[in-house]
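Sequence only, no structure available. Ideas?
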Amino acid sequence: MTTRLYSRSLSELAEGHTDYGFCDQKGRAVGYWWAIYKAVFTPLPEDAMSGYTGRHVDSLGHEHLMVTTSPTRDGKSYGASSDWIHCATRADADAAIAKRTANARRRDAKKFQTNTGR
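Reply:
I predicted one. Tokens follow.
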């Protein structure tokens, strides 16, 4: 059995940033960036050698939402971004962003002192 491959096109629907209210050791504001994209997956010919697999297409359809997130320092992307989250609805996307942002804030709060001087 062969895996069906797809091409993917993305269009940004929304973007945002959360400042946690504390700084790292270098005095940079610690936060988290997120973006929601509309993803459209188009089947490639059966003999295609590269493309995206259909595991999310099978469960969510050819058009669905994708979320990406990244930690920030002073509002700029810092470090690795996270894996894409595939969502069926905007409410699912918003919930995924809230969960990732809260988890990252908890993790970062353990590493850095509360911002008192910015």
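The chain has two helices and six strands.
Hope that gets you unstuck.
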